[in-house]
Design goal:
Elements (H helix, E strand, L loop, with lengths): L14 H15 L5 E5 L6 H11 L5 E7 L5 H19 L10 H8 L4 H15 L3 H8 L2 H9 L2 E7 L12 H11 L3 E7 L2 H11 L7 E5 L5 H12 L6 H11 L3 H17 L7 H13 L4 H10 L11 H9 L5 H8 L3 H13 L3 E4 L2 E4 L3 H15 L8 H20 L2 H9 L5 E5 L2 E5 L4 E4 L12 E8 L2 E8 L5 H11 L7 E6 L5 H9 L3 E4 H10 L21
Parallel strand pairs: 1-4, 1-5, 2-3, 3-4, 12-13, 13-14
Antiparallel strand pairs: 6-7, 8-9, 10-11, 11-12
Helix pairs in contact: 3-4, 5-6, 5-7, 10-11, 10-12, 11-19, 12-13, 13-14, 13-19, 15-16, 15-18, 16-17, 21-22
């Protein structure tokens, strides 16, 4: 494990999710049951959320049964489930013991208080010994109803990495699990999964009807405001200049694991050198120790990610595909040409890496889940492992590269958001991109008309208008650095409708839109782009993200055509 779950005072952010879990748990006491599934990529903090919820939520009428599914062994899962149930019950009954107690010890202590439940537990144990695995698995989930009848207590069953239920070799493991959930109205299920591909398949194929009743939470990286708060608090008393603050956010993508790992090492180095203010040299040294050095936490983490394809017995061109992807070649045909392999073979490699959650496909593009992994592939792994005798993998060269990356990012943030969006639009080449469930072609624009020349200009200094044309396609765009309202959407629609030429209405709201504005935009067929969508495109086209917070919005300057 590269990072431990955090609870209590060390837990950071995600308060909206914790509040929701508490709300749903309180509703269970009132007879309303709403199951929840939390889905997100590895190291985003799902386990921390679950354990922090257990830490903050206490109620005498609710037993929280937490099981992290780690091993492909049914008997281990059954043991963990039952021990968690009994330990929680005994703790509430004032008979708390040690979490390491065996199932027999816990059963013996609870027997006089919940004899019916203990009897059912012993029956499950007997079924396992007789190798009736399917029946034992089915009967396990009945225990919460038994203890409800015997004690009057509701149960919240928390299964961390629930997609691994399918690894126990149980026939129809998910459909049987689903049937139990449907009939157990007095038990709330809180599930989590770090496998997008596996969990999506389970939801779509095996539990489609059941999961229509599940509230799904898709865990994302920290937003910019949370990142700023996190970095400043973690690095205090060291002051962080805005340029490095924004670099750390962009470099980590607001990923909690990377943020925690980096800020810990940066603070350690800054305090050791007595720096009152963070400098580029300290950030570079921290990245050297984390990413470049063999024992660095992030170096070992990424080595583990690619380990299935670095063994002598491994087959395929996965590592070559990854390194080309890290260089910016993110279309199938370009990768295949670069490594001299057939598109069929490369596509097979890409599909396997998608299943292992290393990359994701967005329209015609393949991309990584974060920016640190491709940086490591390009600047560490390739130079140390794939160059001749590791000749280009030197610490001083790595330090220079980091310094250049920071300087390049400082150049980017000096550009206003409008100029950067125009620069992004110039990269479009009729590429197909996915935005959620929908696909859209990004036209090849050759002409850009901005602000007053569009005829759509408003007095609001935080709003800019743009017409992008090329090869018979036209986008009429409005870019606003404030939260968009219904009035602004309607005003934009009226202005753009004055154009007599066919066009697509595009509204870019860098601070988001209120709910009414979203509904109006959808009804009027306005293509809307939030900051997260803009930054996704920035990533696809090899550009640094735009970081906008409530405190740093500024009127953009005029740009030339």
């Amino acid at each position: 494990m590269f990072s431990d779950p955090v609870v209590g005072d060390h837990f950071f952010g995600r308060q909206d999710i914790i509040d929701l879990l508490v709300k749903r748990a309180d509703a269970l006491k009132a007879g309303y049951r709403q199951n929840i599934a939390i889905i997100g990529h590895q190291q985003l903090g799902k386990t921390s959320i679950l354990r922090h919820f257990l830490h903050v939520y206490r109620h005498p009428d609710i037993l929280a049964v937490y099981v992290e599914i780690k091993l492909q062994a049914l008997d281990y899962f059954v043991d963990q489930f039952i021990r968690s149930l009994l330990f929680q019950y005994l703790s509430q009954a004032g008979q708390s013991g040690e979490p390491t107690e065996s199932l027999k010890q816990l059963s013996d202590r609870a027997r006089s208080m919940i004899p019916q439940t203990i009897s059912k537990i012993e029956e499950i144990g007997a079924l396992l010994r007789q190798r009736h695995a399917e029946e034992a698995y089915s009967r396990l989930f009945e225990l919460t109803s038994v203890i409800r009848q015997e004690t009057g207590k509701h149960c919240i069953v928390i299964l961390d990495e629930f997609h691994r239920l399918g690894d126990f070799g149980i026939k129809n493991a998910f459909s049987d699990f689903g049937k139990r959930i449907m009939v157990q109205k007095d038990t709330m299920y809180l599930l989590s999964s770090s496998s997008f591909s596996a969990s999506r398949k389970i939801l779509a194929e095996k539990l489609a009807l059941l999961f229509g009743n599940f509230e799904r939470i898709y865990l994302e990286h920290f937003d910019f405001e949370t990142c700023i708060d996190f970095i400043r608090k973690r690095l205090a008393p060291v002051h962080v200049p805005d340029s490095l603050l924004h670099f750390l956010i962009a470099f980590t993508d607001g990923h909690p694991f990377f943020l925690e790992t980096m800020t810990s090492r940066v603070k350690e180095l800054a305090l050791a050198s007595g720096e009152p203010e963070l400098c580029v040299k300290t950030v570079s040294e921290a990245l050297l120790k984390l990413l470049f050095e063999s024992q660095g936490v992030l170096n070992q983490y990424f080595m583990k990610l690619i380990s299935p394809w670095t063994q002598s017995s491994s087959q395929g061109s996965h590592v070559l595909v990854l390194t080309e992807l890290a260089r910016g070649r993110n279309r199938l045909k370009d990768i295949a040409l670069a490594i001299n392999r057939s598109q069929t073979e490369v596509q097979r490699n890409l599909r396997e890496m998608m299943e292992r959650e290393l990359i994701v496909k967005t329209g015609v593009f393949y991309r990584f889940h974060n920016r640190i992994f491709p940086f490591w592939l390009r600047e560490v792994y390739e130079k140390k492992e794939l160059s001749l005798l590791g000749a280009s993998g030197k610490a001083e060269d790595f330090m220079k590269t980091v310094g250049m990356s920071i300087a390049e990012y400082e150049e980017w943030i000096r550009m206003n958001a409008f100029d950067r969006i125009v620069s992004l639009f110039r990269e479009f080449r009729n590429d197909l991109v996915e935005f959620g469930e929908k696909k859209r072609k990004l036209p090849h624009f050759t002409e850009f008309i901005s602000s007053k020349e569009t005829g759509l200009f408003t007095d609001n200094q935080s709003v800019r208008d743009l017409i992008a044309k090329g090869h018979g396609r036209c986008w009429i765009c409005r870019i606003t650095e404030e939260k968009a309202t219904e009035k602004e959407i309607l005003q934009f629609i009226r202005g753009s409708d004055r154009s007599r030429h066919p066009h697509t209405k595009v509204f870019l709201a860098l601070q988001g839109m209120d709910s009414t504005a979203k509904l109006v935009a959808k009804e009027k067929r306005v293509f809307t782009m939030s900051l997260s969508r803009v930054n996704m495109l920035m990533d696809l086209y090899g550009k640094s993200p735009i970081i906008r917070t409530q405190s740093n919005a500024e009127p953009p300057a005029e740009v030339a055509r």
